[in-house]
Each structure stands twice: as C-alpha cells, then as structure tokens.
Amino acid sequence: MANIKSAKKRILVIRKKTAVNKANKTKMRSYIRRFNEAVDSGDKDAAAASFYDAEKVIRKTASKGAIHRNAADRRVSRLAQKLNKMA
C-alpha cells in the first residue's frame, strides 16, 4: 500500500473504476453470448432482436471507455456477419 495520501486515493479510485469496467465487460459478453445462442438455435427473429440489444450494449461499453472504439466496431461487425449468414 502507498504511503502518500494522493496515491492512496488513486488506488481506491482505480479499484472502483476497475469494478465498473469489469461489470460492463461482463454484461457485454452476456449479451454477445445470448446473440450467439439465438444464432445457433436458428431463430432469425430472436437473433435479430438480440443483435440489436448486443450492439447497443457494445457501443455503450465503448463509450464508457471499458473497451476501445475500434474493438467495439470489430465485435459489432462480426456479429452482423453472423446475422447476415443466416439469411
């Protein structure tokens, strides 16, 4: 543990931010998993609905800074490709 007061505060702030980022990433992965399950089941309507939800969560996670914007674009692009292959 740090000795300087400001360093101690930074450690606490980083802990909180890490917890928030981890929660956001976990939520994002859950929505991606739900989309993949819908695609695997072959239900195009459910897949389209879960794609919309997953894209929204991915973009929000990127806007919060938990993942990079380009990483979010890549993830959304790959999900869209899977959805389009179902047609």
CATH superfamily: Ribosomal protein S20
Shape: elongated
Quaternary assembly: single chain
Number of helices: 3
Tell me the series of helices and strands, N- to C-terminal.
HHH
Determine the fraction of residues in helical runs and give it as a percent range: over 70%
Low-confidence stretches: none
| N-to-C span | 56 Å
The proportion of residues in beta strands is under 5%
Query: What is the arithmetic mean of pLDDT?
Result: 96
CATH architecture: Up-down Bundle
- Major sheet description: none
Question: How would you describe the overall organization of this protein?
Answer:
The protein is mainly alpha-helical and 87 residues long. The chain has a single domain, classed as Methane Monooxygenase Hydroxylase, Chain G, domain 1, CATH 1.20.58.110. Helix 1 runs antiparallel to helix 2. The longest helix is centred in the first third of the chain and has 37 residues. It is elongated. The model has no long low-confidence stretch (mean pLDDT 96).
What attributes characterize this protein structure?
85% helix, 87 residues, mainly alpha
Write the layout of secondary structure elements.
Elements: H1 5-41, H2 44-63, H3 69-85
